[in-house]
Amino acid sequence: MIPVKVSDRALEEIKKTIAHKNIPAEYGLRIGVNGGGCAGVSYVLGFDKKGQGDSEFTLDNVPVYIAKKDTIFLLGMEVDFYEGNDARGFTFIKSDEKQKSL
What is the pTM of this model? Predict the structure, then answer.
């Protein structure tokens, strides 16, 4: 089971980053969360080695790692990539909220 979706746009940008930023071959995409107290959680996206106890899956030859403790916070989330005049970057969207806006 893959707890988080990654849009085609985001996956394309991730692959560009791997190709142009010399990400080591033993690294994969880390999706996770920070925090969890009164302020809630913030979502994290980066490159990292697989840790002990990580869940692992592959998206179009890109290994993805998620710490098991983060899985509950990522269920139903989608990583997307936004590019506009005002900003550019990765975003985390609740899948049900995205469907509401369609």
Answer: 0.85
